[in-house]
Specification:
mainly alpha, Lysozyme, two-stranded antiparallel ribbon, 15 helices
Length: about 325
């Protein structure tokens, strides 16, 4: 998102108010704007794709930056004291409910036509063929019952599970193979989707230091010289954070939050949070940042909302899988 473009698209009153803010206040208000803009767009995108399909969405979205459109409205609302909401209701300007209502009769017409074709086919074949005897009829009936039983067995073997997937840019996806390689080196291959989400938050897959790990102490150079060196150092640091946080799996969200905040602050935070609070919380992340700012005499120390900024790219999806165990005949 082009922040400069967003600011200069505001009306004069909102723009003057923005320029009157301090540097820290501007950074804070932009983080809030980006969060709500991404959230609003994801809702509209999901709704549009469910009604029109992904191909149609790509055609509509080709020449527009929806995130910036949402951000301009939301930033203006925040600066004028209104709720951080966007009044953009649909992606292509159509009323989604109206589109759905207009298309509904055509769907039913199609269903009726298909049903008539099957009825006519059945009538023709029944006239051409001979009427089966009573015994043959019973055999046909038993075959139908067996088919129904097999269908029931197949349905019983399917179960729904929650799977965590990353929702990231193409730039970040282009590093997936390198990330998988280094995840396997540090025995955290199952955390590849988390690593993708971290990279999206840190850089969006742009630049050389894609995981912002130059100062981690795990790279060969400071700053790092290649994207792979950045990925290696970042994954090494995150593997250490996972160990100290005692995170058992990518589904262990509470311990994963602790490890993520440790990646941002340094793993000293993890020991501090466990000792004083028994784990991660949004409140103690803010307290730790304030204490370190006072200790180091600096205006900024890390991102107290880092966990939620990463997790917006790390979502659960429901997937149906077939059970491996089968009944013996």
């Amino acid at each position: 998102m082009d922040r400069k473009k967003v600011v200069y698209s505001l009306d004069k009153e909102a723009r003057d108010k923005f320029f009157s803010l301090s540097k820290k206040e501007k950074a804070s208000i932009f983080r809030k704007t980006e969060y709500y803009a991404f959230t609003e767009h994801r809702k509209l995108r999901a709704k549009y794709i469910s009604q029109h399909g992904y191909k149609k969405y790509k055609e509509v979205a080709k020449d527009r930056d929806f995130i910036e459109e949402h951000a301009i409205i939301i930033l203006g609302n925040i600066l004028t004291g209104k709720k951080p909401k966007s009044n953009i209701k649909t992606i292509d300007g159509e009323d989604a409910a109206l589109v759905k209502f207009v298309k509904l009769p055509y769907i039913w017409i199609g269903v009726v036509v298909i049903a008539l074709i099957f009825v006519l086919k059945g009538t023709v074949f029944s006239k051409q063929g001979k009427k089966p005897s009573g015994k043959q009829t019973k055999v046909v009936t038993s075959d139908k019952k067996n088919k129904k039983k097999k269908r029931k067995r197949k349905k019983a073997k399917l179960k729904t599970v929650k799977v965590y997937k990353s929702d990231v840019s193409d730039s970040t996806k282009s590093y997936r193979a390198i990330m998988e390689k280094h995840c396997n080196i540090y025995n955290i291959g199952e955390y590849i989707e988390v690593i993708m989400a971290i990279t999206e938050q840190e850089s969006g897959g742009q630049g050389i230091d894609v995981m912002q790990s130059s100062e981690s102490g795990y790279g060969q150079n400071n700053p790092v010289l290649t994207a792979e060196e950045s990925i290696n150092a970042g994954i090494h640091l995150f593997s250490v954070c996972l160990d100290i946080a005692e995170c058992k799996s990518p589904k262990d969200i509470e311990r994963l939050k602790l490890a993520l905040q440790g990646y941002n602050y340094g793993y000293g935070y993890i020991r501090w949070a466990n000792l004083h609070y028994g784990g991660f919380s949004e409140n103690n992340a803010a307290i730790f940042s304030a204490e370190m700012k006072a200790k180091l005499n600096t205006s900024v120390y890390g991102d107290p909302e880092y966990v939620y900024h990463v997790l917006r790219y790390y979502k659960t999806q429901k997937v149906k899988i077939r059970e491996t165990s089968e009944k013996k005949k």
